[in-house]
């Protein structure tokens, strides 16, 4: 029998009334939100993690987020082979930098962690049996004490051996012996920007709330990495308390929950992005009948990739066929040269404000606003997807504030010039995004994440 503490219940996600059955959910928070700032303050983490010197909406704030984006995508190769296997020596190339974090509970009695959420990563791991981990302490957040996962303290934990069918291998990987522990190594980034986590694969209970009128807490046995050794930025400002992989891989958390025969749940999940950094993550959510949808492209890196056929800005339609990654872990949407230029120039041609240059800002197309300006007419930005549905960015611009007076003096089109096409978090805000792995469909709908 698993035990569940009252203090953990207080920090579980608030349950939503829903007409869609068989959903399990949790809250998540933006890395620069008040919730996460309070936690990082209590653990003495550095300014790179918690940029207090960069007020929201200031030039410094956007510089900090752009730095995160560039770090995340540096050296990215989206077509590189197998992502992950549970065996010694096999490496996964994923990319550090996460925007959203959630409290998760593992073990009996439960141990709580603040883990990064990553739709581009397959593996769930937490610091454990630490030989080299990020600094943590017994400093508390509310009435919960954060710590590394302790195998021996959980009555339901078990290690996975190389002889187990749960230790996935491929032709390029081997265990040292059948009786040895199943091990993993996962790498993020490359060169001077590389980080890694390595350790053994374990199984224990993951706790979630049921998204129906009962609001019951359920616990599900799940595989995850016991991260014994972390390197690089994982020791200094990277996700200090673990990372939850949400990709379409068959070893990601959504897939493992769906494979569990003890519950009836589809291999699908949704993320709802609120404007202030609060969000909801619901496993088993297939969305609603009135949502917009498009097919997911087959992608060897397990990223969520869609096909777009038009870029529509205000009254201008640009016929442009291209693929784009939908990545909640990227702050700002970015596009390759020709698409970026068409979108930006179409937008600029339809605004009445004067275009200005702002020193240090990561955005190229910015427009001046006056203090007595009653309203601003912003051209809409949307994309026609394969199949005919329209994806609209509800908030295509970002406001720029004077950090001394806290007044807005400009706004910018929130896109960056990349060497790949990415629909990032700023284009997802205000919407419930459904990642249906089972049907290979991406769904979306404007949504009140707080109701």
Automatic annotation (TrEMBL):
Q: Which GO terms describe its molecular function?
A: aspartic-type endopeptidase activity
- Going by the entry's taxonomy, the superkingdom of the source organism is recorded as Eukaryota
Q: Name one GO biological process term.
A: proteolysis
What PANTHER family would the database entry show? Answer: ASPARTYL PROTEASES (PTHR13683), OS09G0542100 PROTEIN (PTHR13683:SF232)
Q: Which intervals hold domain Peptidase A1?
A: 100-445
- List the catalytic residues: 118, 327
Q: Which residues form the signal peptide?
A: 1-21
Bilayer-spanning residue ranges:
none
Q: Which family does it belong to?
A: Belongs to the peptidase A1 family.
InterPro entries this protein is in? Aspartic_peptidase_A1, Aspartic_peptidase_AS, Pepsin-like_dom, PEPTIDASE_A1, Peptidase_aspartic_dom_sf, TAXi_C, TAXi_N
| Keyword tags | Aspartyl protease, Hydrolase, Protease, Signal
| Protein name (record) | Eukaryotic aspartyl protease family protein
């Amino acid at each position: 029998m698993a035990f569940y503490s009252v203090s953990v219940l207080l920090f579980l996600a608030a349950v939503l009334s829903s007409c869609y059955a068989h959903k399990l959910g949790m809250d998540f928070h933006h890395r620069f939100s008040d919730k996460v700032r309070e936690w990082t303050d209590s653990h003495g983490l550095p300014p790179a993690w918690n940029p207090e010197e960069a007020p929201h909406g200031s030039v410094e704030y956007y510089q900090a987020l752009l730095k995160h984006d560039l770090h995340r995508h540096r050296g990215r190769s989206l077509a590189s082979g197998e992502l992950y296997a549970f065996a010694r020596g096999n490496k996964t190339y994923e990319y550090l930098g996460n925007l959203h974090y959630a409290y998760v509970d593992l073990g009996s009695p439960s141990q709580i962690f603040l883990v990064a959420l990553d739709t581009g990563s397959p593996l769930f791991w937490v610091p454990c049996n630490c030989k080299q981990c990020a600094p943590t302490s017994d400093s508390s957040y509310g009435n919960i004490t954060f710590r590394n996962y302790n195998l021996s303290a959980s009555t339901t934990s078990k290690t996975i051996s190389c002889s187990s069918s749960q230790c996935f291998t491929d032709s390029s990987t081997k265990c040292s012996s059948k009786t040895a522990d199943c091990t993993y190594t996962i790498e993020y980034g490359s060169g001077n920007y590389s980080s890694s986590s390595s350790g053994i694969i374990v199984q224990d209970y993951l706790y979630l709330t049921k998204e129906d009128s009962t609001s019951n807490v359920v616990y599900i046995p799940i595989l995850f990495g016991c991260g014994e050794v972390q390197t690089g930025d994982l020791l200094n400002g990277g996700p200090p308390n673990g990372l939850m992989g949400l990709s379409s891989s068959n070893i990601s958390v959504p897939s493992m929950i769906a494979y569990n025969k003890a519950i009836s749940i589809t291999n699908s999940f949704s993320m709802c992005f609120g404007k202030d950094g609060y969000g909801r993550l619901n496993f088993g959510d297939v969305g609603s009948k009135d949502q917009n949808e498009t097919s997911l492209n087959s992608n060897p890196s397990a990223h969520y990739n869609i096909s777009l056929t038009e870029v529509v800005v205000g009254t201008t339609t640009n016929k442009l066929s291209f693929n784009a990654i939908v990545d909640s872990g990227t702050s700002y949407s970015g596009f390759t040269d020709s698409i970026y230029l068409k979108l930006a120039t179409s937008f600029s041609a339809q605004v009445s404000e004067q275009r200005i240059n702002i020193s240090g800002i990561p955005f190229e197309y910015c427009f001046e606003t006056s203090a007595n300006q009653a309203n601003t007419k912003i051209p809409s930005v949307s994309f026609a997807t394969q199949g005919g549905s329209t994806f609209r960015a509800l908030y295509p611009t970002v406001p720029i504030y004077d950090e001394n007076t806290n007044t807005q003096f400009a706004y910018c089109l929130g896109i960056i010039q990349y060497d790949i096409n990415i629909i990032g978090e700023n284009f997802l805000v205000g919407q419930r995004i459904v990642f249906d792995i089972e049907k290979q469909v991406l769904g979306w709908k404007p949504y009140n994440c707080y109701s």
